[in-house]
Amino acid sequence: MALTQISSNKCFGGLQKVFEHDSVELNCKMKFAVYLPPKAESEKCPALYWLSGLTCTEQNFISKSGYHQAALEHGLVVIAPDTSPCGYNSKGEDESWDFGTGAGFYVDTTEDPWKTNYRMYSYVMEELPQLINANFPVDPQRMSIFGHSMGDHGALICALKNPGKYKSVSAFAPICNPVLSPWGKKAFSGYLGTDQSKWKAYDATRLVKSYPGSQLDILIDQGKDDQFLLDGQLLPDNFIAACTEKKIPIVFRLQEGYDHSYYFIATFITDHIRHHAEYLNA
Predict the structure, then answer these.
(1) Neighbours of 64 (CB within 10 A)
(2) What does UniProt list as catalytic (predicted)?
(3) How many domains does the chain have?
(4) Domain with 151 in it
C-alpha cells in the first residue's frame, strides 16, 4: 500500500516522520507518525505503538510527550496513529468532543452510520501493523503497546484480547471500565448499540477477568489530581481488583499533584519506555 510522507524532522539523531495512506478498514485517508532511531538504519528494531486520547491526532504525542530521547536510547521504533477516521463527514460526527471525530474509542462499530468507517480496533490490530511491517525496519515478533486515557483503553483491550501479541503494555490514566463510565456509555451506545453484551468485548476490566493468556506485566501511572479520575470516568480501582483476582501483575502508581495532561505524561514517559524496552530487548 502506498505511503505519502507528510513530514520528516531529525530528532536525537533519528527521524520523526508523518505519513498518510488510504486505509481499507476506515475507508478514508489516515495519518500516522513513526520515529526511526539511528539503530533502524542498520537493523530491525522493536515496534512500540502509542494510542492517543480524546480530541488528539498523531501530533499530540510526538510534539508534547518528549519520548524521543528514551526511544533512541533503547532503539525502539515508535508508531502513533490518529484517533479516528478523517474526512468521513457524517452527520453528528463533530457535534461533541467525546464522540465522532477524535473519539474512535478503538472499537469496530456495528451501528449506522459509523460502521462503514469507524473500525479503529481492526485498524490498530491488523492494518497498521501490516503497513509498518512492510515499510519500516521493525521486528514483527517484538511489539508492545501503550497510550493515554481513551488510548489506554485501546492499548489494554488490544493486549487483553490478543494474548501473546504484545510483549508488554502500559498506561497513562486509562479508561479502565468504560461500560460503567459516562464517556464509555456514550461512545458504546452510539457505536455498538444498546446490547450491552457487545460493550463487554471492549472493556478492559471485563476482559481481564477471562484473560487466558501468558504472563502480562502491566504498568499504570495515574495523576491523583486528575479531574477525570475524580469524576468517575477512569475507574482504575475496578481494573486493579480484577487483575488482583486474576493474579495478573500490575504496578499502579498514583502520582501526587499530577493531572490528565501531557505535562503528566512527559514526566513519566521515560519510565514507560524503559518498561517496554525491558521486554522488547530481552
Answers:
(1) 15
(2) 149, 226, 260
(3) 1
(4) 4-281
Alpha helices per DSSP H over 65-165? 68-74, 120-122, 128-135, 150-161
Distance CA 203, CA 216 (A): 17
Percent helix, percent strand, percent coil in the chain, to nearest 5: 40, 25, 35
Containing 161, the helix (H) or strand (E) segment is helix 150-161
Say if CB 221 and CB 172 are below 8 A apart. yes
At position 14, the amino acid (one-letter code) is G
204 and 174 Cβ atoms separated by less than 8 Å: yes
Which residue out of 153, 260, 272, 275 is catalytically annotated? 260
Task: Give which of 145, 59, 146 is closest to 102, Cα–Cα.
Answer: 59
Examine the residue annotation and report whether 226 is marked as an active-site residue of this protein. yes
Residue 232's SS3 state is: coil
> Residue-wise pLDDT tens for the chain (282 aa)?
689 999 999 999 999 999 999 999 999 999 999 999 999 999 999 999 999 999 999 999 999 999 999 999 999 999 999 999 977 667 778 888 889 889 999 999 999 999 999 999 999 999 999 999 999 999 999 999 999 999 999 999 999 999 999 999 999 999 999 999 999 999 999 999 999 999 999 999 999 999 986 788 899 999 999 999 999 999 999 999 999 999 999 999 999 999 999 999 999 999 999 999 999 998
149 is catalytic: yes
Place of cell 513513526: 34
3-state secondary structure of 7: strand
pTM: 0.97
Q: What is the domain-level CATH number for residue 174?
A: 3.40.50.1820
